[in-house]
Specification:
The protein is mainly beta. The protein has 5 domains: 188 residues, Galactose-binding domain-like (Jelly Rolls), CATH 2.60.120.260; 76 residues, Immunoglobulin-like, CATH 2.60.40; 270 residues, TIM Barrel; 99 residues, Sandwich (Immunoglobulin-like), CATH 2.60.40; 271 residues, Beta-galactosidase, Chain A, domain 5 (Distorted Sandwich), CATH 2.70.98. 10% of the residues lie in helices and 37% in strands. A hairpin with a 4-residue loop joins strand 56 and strand 57. Helix 1 packs parallel to helix 2, helix 3 packs parallel to helix 4 and helix 5 runs parallel beside helix 7. The longest helix has 15 residues. The protein binds 1-methylethyl 1-thio-beta-D-galactopyranoside. 1-methylethyl 1-thio-beta-D-galactopyranoside binds next to loops.
Length: 957
């Protein structure tokens, strides 16, 4: 391969310094070279013209890009982003890349600060360049490198001038390294992380390794700092003053994600003082269980890609901090850095705030799976040096972070000897941590059995250590490195997974896929996804599958996850008037939490107060008595809400932040919510029938007005705009209902009126609802009654023929004037909920505008259902309607139809009309996770079956 240009050969780098530990600062001066750089884009790499790197080159005719940044996000003239999941967007001919290889030449002139020391050396550090760079300083070539999300350094002291230095980078979008970087994300070339010039004082460390262990039996920490030059290590708080290489054992408090105890220290060597942040902890497998500091830990994790809707993977510190704080506020305790080492400052934040980290190598060769893994670089010895370089650059950079507990070789690379070589190198260099890799079911190279997207049933089998497969694997702890695909509405089924993690000690939790939607700001579409930037090959909105929307607003999925993984369980006690409180923390007792109770009658808080809960140790439970219930009006539904909130401010949330909650019913037998409405009689006249406050079309039996409100299109409805999880992924082995519903015509049901009759006080409408071309359908009877002021509707549904699919939903829909914008309800809230995403819905009285009920999924789809509704009021401030239901119902309210929602591809496609479309559902089909995982669990399927439900409409105002 020697005839290939440098960017196509497999060598990882030339001229770089050996990788070393990253630290935020020392007392040695540093000069950030971030900022505006002169930039020129060429469509091919072919240009052999390197004259731009000469010290006196005149770049005045060039454009400008911001560094850190991706040029494709900085103006149309610089091309655009492209999204593919698995497929390489170029012919697979490793290690060669296409001639169309966008090439960005970058130039930066700089002076040294006046106080830059004359003595000592200097290092140029590039924290991340996609996909490769060749580097010159003052006309002298320093070398080149590949490995986009890895740090690279060059010694430059001998080349620096006091003034007018010129740094030149040639960056190619495609290189041999691109074959190793086939992660499911946008392809975003550019200098996307910091560029820094670091002074290196004489005798300063080349590298150092902080070994900080913890022995939970005596409660001591062991400390030894290895350094390539002699120096001293001081930890004043522990009274330690050691030579580098010298060991000490002292009593310490260990570091954990729950109690991220760091000891401030300092390494001094030569002329440099480097601050140390030391966390003592152990991580190991014992009896098939993953433990830290002597205790089993449970990952309540997320997969985090680096993403910003305008800046791509160029993240500033504030955004990284926002991610960490949002994670902590949502009870998340672990991050897998899918699928590459993050910006190094992110790990400092994980150390400080407390998050367990699986730190993953910058490696994925997924596109070879399409080729039956022919030519897979991880199974081709020519690539092994490049793989070892990636392993070393991962471990060396990040080895001093206590938060990092597992090293992950990479993602989706199939199997091969190259991976084994990486694992061996890592174990040799850092025996203190565990090795992770998901793609090899033999687990030959790993310390944990890791899987993505297995079904609940399989997780259970693995939990029982009853899984088929190699005997040695059954002795390993089990983690789900990816599960619960958070694409669009969902993920469903989280609570059922969590029950398995809590039941089986081998199941040590998982990492939801994924943290944030990668929707890029788009001039027309709001947030764009694959295909919106003119790509010829793309994977659509599969890139929007996060718990956060692109602007970092939490989605209902994140709110659900927070509730499902809450570290304290508050549940009804076995005896009435008691609460069972369980401390599910791995380490902490409950002393950091304050508990409160409130007593609700029909959703209204009647009384509240502090609730005394003993400071239970991790893993303990207690029964706690509730106070005497306050007197509540007869016939009301009463519940207790018990909340656990932070007792004191923390780094990530203020005192009072809610961590966990539970509701305990206080009424034993709730009264029926809907009374029979009798008294008024239907009065047929010409083409209209009047019944109480309702006027009906005498021929069709459809209501036309309700009091003063016009009503349109009231009828049975089974259709919902399929969610991404309804649609499912093409490779899913199980039937995918979204496509099947459409194939069977559930989106265009026909309604035939079979009879309208009045008898006694009832107006009865019989109809049959069925799709064209099919012989199955639903027989529907609507029965209307009234007491003169309100209307009651009893609906009876009887399936006919053989229904081959579950129903998307079952209820009625109707149109009302759009002016009814104020929504108040008593039921589950405040956010959306579906049968298998309902953990976070709590009973209460809630209010919203119609716009506020919508969940802005990047690709519009069914959303916004509110669950367990006892009653609902819609008004324009003066007039409106109150709707009660028996049993409790679900509702959605939108200024567009389901058909319009279904047709929309982006949020701006949804334009509010002058009708408020209201769905009042008896039931909804579950959500599941089939966009990349198992579908809806049997208990959450909405099979066609006889059903009856009732609604009452009272005009208001
Ligand atoms: C899995 C990938 O590891 C991840 O990067 C992402 O693509 C995710 O799926 C889906 O969004 S791979 C999948 C084919 C199981």
């Amino acid at each position: 391969m020697s005839a290939l240009p440098w960017y196509e050969d497999v060598s990882p780098d030339r001229g770089t310094l050996p990788p070393r530990a990253w630290y935020a600062r020392s007392d040695a001066p540093a000069l950030s070279l971030n900022g505006d750089w002169a930039f020129r884009l060429s469509p091919t790499a072919g240009a052999e013209d390197e004259s731009f790197a000469a010290a006196d080159f005149d770049a005045s005719g060039w454009g400008t890009v911001a560094v850190p940044g991706h040029w494709v996000l900085q103006g149309k003239e610089f091309g655009g982003p492209a999204y593919t999941n698995v497929l390489y967007p170029f012919p697979v001919d490793p290690p060669r890349v296409p001639a169309e290889n966008p090439t960005g030449d970058h130039l930066r002139r700089f002076d040294l600060p006046a106080d830059w020391p004359a003595e000592g050396g200097a290092v140029l550090r590039l924290d991340g360049v996609e996909s490769c760079a060749r580097v010159w300083l003052n006309g002298t070539e320093l070398g080149d490198f590949k490995g986009s999300r890895l740090a690279h350094e060059f010694a430059v002291g001998h080349l620096l001038e006091a003034r007018d230095n010129v740094l030149a980078l040639r960056v190619h979008q495609w290189s041999s390294g691109s074959y190793l970087e086939d992660q499911d994300q946008w392809w975003l070339p550019g200098v996307f992380r910091d560029v820094t010039l670091l002074h290196r004082p004489e005798g300063a460390p080349g590298d150092f390794f902080v070994h900080a262990s913890y022995d939970h039996v005596p409660g001591t920490g062991g400390l030894r700092v290895d350094c390539d030059v002699p120096g001293r290590v001081r930890v004043p708080e522990l009274g330690l003053d050691l030579a580098t290489g010298e060991s000490a054992t002292v009593p310490v408090e260990p570091w954990s994600a729950e109690v991220p105890r760091l000891y401030e220290g300092e390494l001094t060597a030569g002329g440099e003082r480097i601050p140390l942040r030391i966390g003592f902890r152990s991580v190991y497998v014992e009896d098939g269980v993953l433990k830290a500091n002597g205790r089993r830990i449970l990952f309540r994790g997320v997969n985090r890609h680096e993403f910003h809707p305008e800046r791509g993977r160029a993240l500033d510190l504030a955004t990284m901090r926002e991610d960490v704080e949002l994670m902590k506020r949502h009870n998340i305790n672990a991050v897998r850095t899918s699928h590459y080492p993050p910006h190094p400052a992110f790990l400092d934040l994980c150390d400080t705030y407390g998050l367990w980290v699986i730190d993953e190598g910058d490696l994925e060769t997924h596109g070879f799976e399409e080729l039956a893994w022919r030519g897979n670089p991880v199974d081709d010895a020519r690539w092994t040096p490049a793989l070892l370089d990636r392993a070393a650059r991962l471990v060396e950079r990040d080895k001093n972070h206590p938060s990092v507990v597992l090293w992950s070789l990479g993602n989706e690379c199939g199997t091969g000897a190259g991976l084994t070589a990486m694992a061996e190198w890592i174990r040799d260099r850092d025996p203190s941590r565990l090795v992770h890799y998901e793609g090899d079911r033999s687990c030959a190279d790993t310390d944990v059995y890791s899987r993505m997207y297995p079904s609940h049933a399989e997780v259970e089998e693995i939990g029982r250590r009853a899984d088929e497969g190699p005997e040695a694997r059954r002795r390993l702890p089990f983690v789900l490195c990816e599960y619960a695909h958070a694409m669009g509405n969902g993920p469903g089924g989280l609570a059922a997974y969590q029950r398995l993690f809590e039941r089986y000690e081998r199941c040590q939790g998982g990492f939801v896929w994924e943290w944030i939607d990668h929707g890029l700001v788009h001039p027309v579409h709001g947030h764009g996804y694959g295909g919106d930037f003119g790509e010829e090959l793309h994977d659509g909105n599969f890139v929007c599958d996060g718990l956060l929307f692109p602007d970092r607003t939490p989605s209902p999925g994140l709110v659900e996850y927070k509730k499902v993984i809450e570290p304290v369980r508050i549940a009804p006690g076995e005896e009435p008037g008691t609460v069972a409180v369980t401390n599910g923390h791995d380490v902490s007792d409950l002393a950091h939490l304050a508990f409160t109770w409130s007593f609700l009658a029909d959703g209204e808080v009647l009384a509240e107060g502090p609730f005394e809960v003993p400071a239970l140790a991790a893993g303990q439970s207690a029964r706690v008595d509730l106070p005497e219930p306050p007197a509540s009006p007869a016939g009301t539904e009463a519940v207790w809400t018990v909340r656990a909130v932070l007792a004191h401010d923390t780094a990530w949330a203020p005192a009072g932040h809610e961590v966990a909650w539970g509701q305990i019913p206080a009424t034993t037998a709730p009264a029926p919510r809907l009374r029979a409405l009798t008294g008024a009689r239907p009065a047929p006249a010409a083409d209209r029938t009047t019944l109480g406050p309702g006027v009906f079309d005498a021929r069709t039996g459809e209501p036309l007005t309700l009091g003063a409100l016009p009503v349109t299109g009231l009828r049975l409805d089974v259709w919902r705009a399929p969610t991404d999880n309804d649609e499912g992924a093409p490779w899913q082995p199980d039937v995918r209902y979204g496509p099947l519903w459409r194939e069977l015509g559930l989106h265009r049901m026909r309604h035939r009126t079979d009879g309208v009759s009045t008898a006694g006080d009832t107006l009865t409408v019989r109809s049959r609802v069925a799709p064209a071309a099919r012989d199955f359908g639903l027989g529907v009877t609507y029965r209307w009654t009234s007491d003169g002021t309100a209307l009651r509707l009893d609906v009876e549904v009887v399936p006919e023929g053989g229904w081959p699919v579950p129903l998307p939903r079952l209820g009625v829909r109707l149109g009302l004037p759009a002016a009814l914008d104020r929504v108040v309800w008593y039921g589950g809230g405040p956010g959306e909920a579906y049968p298998d995403t309902r953990a976070a819905a709590r009973l209460g009285r809630w209010e919203s505008t119609v716009a506020g009920l919508q969940t802005p999924y990047v690709r519009p789809q069914e959303n916004g259902a509110r669950i367990d509704t006892r009653w609902l009021e819609l008004s324009d401030g003066s007039a409106g309607v109150r709707i009660g239901g028996e049993p409790a119902f679900w509702f959605t309210a939108r200024r567009w139809t389901t058909e319009q929602l279904d047709a929309a591809a982006h949020r701006p496609d949804l334009v509010p009309g002058d009708t408020l479309w209201l769905n009042l559902d008896h039931a909804q089909h579950g959500i599941g996770s089939q966009s990349c995982g198992p579908g809806v669990l049997p208990g959450h399927r909405l099979d066609a079956a006889p059903a009856a439900f009732s609604l009452a409409f009272t005009p208001l105002g």
